[in-house]
Design brief:
The protein has 210 residues and is α/β, with parallel strands linked by helices. Helix content is 48%, strand content 16%. The chain binds BIS(adenosine)-5'-pentaphosphate and magnesium ion.
Length: 210
């Protein structure tokens, strides 16, 4: 199964990708996570991407397309994968097509902008393994500590309210047109993001079947 998760920043793509990759036993590929890892290691690509991420802007297409080409060429992607946060622009979607990759389903997780703002302010991520939490909706067993690997939970810099508004604007302008792009191919399914993560997962898994 080759799957794309589409949706606004904070719609729950990463959260769903984590659950679904365990259920379907295929890797979740998040361009955001790959870039943040490069950033923390201080690689050239990470440094190049930093100013865009901090400003809530998209990293240039050629950089992320390069990342995806590398990642999808790895052995663990041969039986399928879940793309979380890619493609984000029409040229990125066209690049995926040009690579000869046949996507089975595109799940668009819809969450209204007002709800997004609340979700982002409460999000905490594990410094080490990247697992995602929410202070209210998905709290870790121990405050500030990752359930999976015991490392410290931190708040992402780009979850600052002003940056979130910028990211939402970028989403509506540059990423939302992908809904029409994939709808025209007949592979788009819309899932209304629910208050409960498990309810959203149930709808997503159902959308994979039809
Ligand atoms: P990226 O890391 O991909 O960020 P994003 O898409 O902007 O969105 P998020 O990761 O914030 O949202 P999400 O949908 O994964 O939400 P989550 O599950 O965490 O990208 C970061 C940056 O990298 C971009 O701004 C850009 O600069 C660059 N970049 C990355 N890919 C790129 C590309 N292809 N092209 C160009 N640039 C690129 O959920 C959010 C919160 O809500 C969590 O706290 C979670 O616990 C909570 N939550 C989740 N589900 C629910 C629920 N059902 N109910 C209540 N709370 C919930
Ligand atoms: Mg994410």
């Amino acid at each position: 199964m080759k799957l794309i998760l589409l949706g606004a920043p904070g719609a729950g793509k990463g959260t769903q990708a984590e659950v679904i990759c365990n259920k379907l036993n295929i890797p979740a590929v998040s361009t955001g996570n790959i870039i943040r890892e490069a950033l923390s290691k201080g690689t050239e690509m990470g440094l190049k991407a930093k100013s865009y991420i901090d400003a809530g802007q998209l990293v240039p297409d050629d950089v992320v397309i390069g990342i995806i080409k590398d990642r999808l060429g790895k052995d663990d992607c041969s039986n399928g994968f879940i793309l979380d946060g890619f493609p984000r622009t029409i040229p990125q979607a066209e690049a995926l097509d040009a690579m000869g990759i046949d996507i089975d389903r595109v799940i668009d997780i819809e969450v209204p902008d007002e709800k997004i703002i609340a979700r982002m302010s409460g999000r905490r991520v594990c410094k080490s393994c990247g697992a995602t939490y929410h202070t209210e909706y998905k709290a870790p067993a121990m405050d500030g500590v990752c359930d999976v690997c015991d490392a410290e939970l931190i708040q992402r810099k780009d979850d600052h309210p002003d940056t979130v508004l910028e990211r939402l604007e970028v989403y509506h302008k540059q990423t939302e047109p992908l809904k029409d792009y994939y709808s025209a191919k007949g592979i788009l399914r819309v899932v209304e993001g629910q208050e409960d993560v498990a309810d959203t997962t149930a709808l997503t898994l159902k959308a994979l079947e039809d």
